[in-house]
Amino acid sequence: MKDTTLPHRSARRHRQAPLLILLALPWIVAASSSRPARRPAHRAAPVNLVWHVETLDGTEVSTIQGDEPINPASVVKVATTLWALEKLGPEHRFDTVFATQGALDAAKGTLAGDLIVLGNGDPDFHAENAFLVALRLNELGIRTVRGSLRVNDTFWIGWEGGTGRVITDPRIRAEQMAQRLRAALDPKRWNNMTRRAWREFAIRRGLPTARPPAVAVLGGIGALTRPPDARNILLIHRSKGVADALRRFDCFSNNDIERLGASLGSASELAQRVSEVIGAPPDSVLLETISGLGTNRMTPRSVVQLLRALRTTCARLGLTVESLLPVAGCDPGTLNHSFARLGTGPNAMSVTAKTGTLTSTDGGTAVLAGFVSTGRGDLAFCVAAPHAGGRLSQARAAQARWLEQLIAAADGPRPRRCAGPLANPEDGAQIVRDEPSWTQSRGAAR
């Protein structure tokens, strides 16, 4: 069917973005750009958008260069989310074991030996989780550790920033994490951010803000290079379910989602899995990272197919897409920050999508991909602005206009319900005393 365009209201508006119309049944959103008007030399070149749109059953609605490879940026996190749900399950929890080799003198509140931490890849452990641990250690009578604090190389606390910022030497990284944990356990070492985190944590849990838990480590920090000969488990920190952690990563587009690689596998393995899921040739999906940093390649069509696969998996697991990806007008994070106009007015709560942004890689790129609920039904879409470095704000504005026009052409928005408040770092976490959910050989430091 031949593409046509609606008459534009003004040359100025028309040269900013393609126009969409609703054609005869079966309905198709068609888009094209007419000849651009002459513009002043100082005006920035227009942003060129590429996209692909399908109904939930896979019927193509509209595509412009939908089969040309793009860098999907952080939309790769959708693939990582799907992989984690498939491989781990939405209720999977990470156990972090706190143990000691020394003697405990509860009367004096001292631990004579070292405090040992055996992480098992919890990607979302923060100061608030350390507060839970400190509260329990105080209950056990431990307020001072006369030995050192030693952690293995699959324990993390706080954010690093993903590829390029992560210390690659496992020993040095473990020492950094031990340093962070020691500071979180001891109020005398807190910075302003940790003090604020404690106040908010205490208020949420009805605890006195002026009486924080305290565990002082006197003997320094270090990496755990081998497991202790005899392990005396003090407690186990059991994380929130992985689905809640994934939602936090997707809303804030945090690149430390890469930590899940310790439990899932490599970027090349993820690329292979994506190819299998969407039925694409193995060499059509190329991933350098599982966060979207670096050089990655998918087509807008393959991104949409990935989104539909995520939706199918969610339905099978009793989840909704809205419980994993941010909803415009509901959730904090990059979607509502970069596309605030989609979260207000009549379109609020009708867009569930993942953002992707790279400022310089591949000339910079801005991607928006997800689902939009309309009067004609739900649509899966991917719209990208390749080579948009230096014009990212302009690119996002063009993408927002494109999506607004798509919604209007599909008989307007159909808002969905918000999925509820985003989990805090400690929400759903537990302190337990049973055996860890993983074997000693798996949990041993390497």
Which helices and strands appear, and what pairs or packs with what?
Layout: H1 11-14, E1 19-22, E2 29-32, E3 50-55, E4 60-64, H2 76-87, E5 95-100, E6 104-105, E7 110-111, E8 115-118, H3 127-139, E9 144-145, E10 149-151, H4 170-185, H5 192-205, E11 216-217, E12 221-223, E13 232-238, H6 242-252, H7 261-264, H8 267-278, H9 300-316, H10 334-338, E14 351-358, E15 365-374, E16 377-386, H11 392-409, E17 430-432, H12 440-443
Parallel strand pairs: 7-9, 8-10, 9-11, 10-12
Antiparallel strand pairs: 1-2, 3-4, 3-16, 5-8, 5-13, 6-7, 13-17, 14-15, 15-16
Helix pairs in contact: 2-6, 2-9
Average pLDDT level: 88
Named at the architecture level, the CATH assignment of the largest domain is 3-Layer(aba) Sandwich
Helix percent reads 25-40%
- Strand % is 15-25%
Low-confidence stretches: 1-42, 438-446
The 3D shape can be described as elongated
CATH topology of the largest domain: Beta-lactamase
- Give the end-to-end Cα distance, rounded to a whole number of Å: 61 Å
**Level-1 CATH class name of the largest domain:** Alpha Beta
